[in-house]
Amino acid sequence: MNLDLELRKKVLAQVLSYISAGVTAVIGALNWFAIREFQRILVVYVGVSPWAWRAIDLFTFMILGILWLCGVYLSQDYYEKGYWKAELLKRLLTITGVQLFVLLVFYYITYIIRLRFGI
Question: CB 3.0-4.6 Å disulfide test: which of 41, 73, 79, 116 passes with 20?
Answer without folding.
Answer: 79
